[in-house]
Write a structure and sequence with these properties.
7-stranded mixed beta sheet, disordered C terminus, mainly beta, 1 helix
C-alpha cells in the first residue's frame, strides 16, 4: 500500500479494454496540470449519470494532480462496497465507505497506482460524491486515497518505517507477491 512520499514503481501496461475512444468518456489533456480522466466503467445510461460523472471526474483529476500523475482511469463510479477474497479466486462483496475505484499513470499506456479514493456522498442520494473524505472520517486503514503499486515494485524503495505487512520468501527473505490483494509487488517475482 502506498504511503505519502513513497516513490512510484515501474507500473504495468494498461489493459486493452481500458483503451477508450469515446470522446464523451475522456476528459482533460493528459498532463500533470490537466490530467486526462478516462472512464472505463461501462454505463448503462450515460445521460442519467451526468452529475455522478462530473463529480467523480473532478475528484479523480484533483487526486491525480496531487500525485503528479497525468492519467486517471475510473474503473467504477462512487459505490459503497468492496471485493474481499476469502480464498484465491473466491470473492465476496462487503460494505465499504463510498469510494471511486481508480488507477493513475504518468502516460496513457502505463498504470502506476491503483485503488480507492474515499468520498462523502451527496445528501440527495444521487450517487454523486460531494467531496473527498478527510483522514479523520475514514473507517478504512491506509489513508485517502488508498493505493497499491501496480506491477513490480522495488523492495529497496519502501520507506524504512513502512507500516504495512508483506510476505518474505523463507528461502532468501526477498519479498514475494501477496494474494489475493497484494500490498506491493517486487521485481524479483514479477520481472
Amino acid at each position: 500500500m502506498r504511503v505519502p512520499g513513497m516513490p512510484a514503481g515501474r507500473g504495468r501496461r494498461v489493459p486493452d479494454e481500458w483503451k477508450v475512444t469515446d470522446p464523451e468518456l475522456i476528459f482533460g489533456q493528459g498532463n500533470s496540470g490537466d490530467p486526462q480522466v478516462i472512464w472505463v466503467y461501462n454505463f448503462k445510461d450515460l445521460e442519467k449519470k451526468e452529475r455522478v460523472i462530473r463529480r467523480c471526474t473532478e475528484i479523480a483529476r484533483e487526486e491525480a494532480q496531487k500525485l503528479g500523475m497525468s492519467y486517471v482511469w475510473i474503473r467504477n463510479l462512487n459505490h459503497p462496497y468492496k471485493s474481499h477474497y476469502v480464498t484465491p479466486g473466491t470473492r465476496v462483496m462487503l460494505y465499504a465507505q463510498p469510494h471511486i475505484t481508480v488507477a493513475f499513470g504518468t502516460d496513457v499506456s502505463t498504470r502506476i497506482w491503483e485503488g480507492h479514493v474515499y468520498t462523502k456522498d451527496m445528501a440527495d442520494k444521487s450517487g454523486a460524491p460531494q467531496r473527498i473524505l478527510e483522514a479523520s472520517e475514514l473507517e478504512e486503514k491506509g489513508g485517502n486515497p488508498q493505493l497499491w503499486a501496480s506491477g513490480p515494485y522495488p523492495y529497496h524503495n519502501l520507506p524504512n518505517d513502512y507500516p504495512y505487512p508483506f510476505l518474505l520468501n523463507p528461502k532468501d527473505e526477498k519479498p514475494v507477491y501477496k494474494m489475493p490483494a497484494p500490498e506491493f509487488y517486487t521485481e524479483a517475482h514479477h520481472p
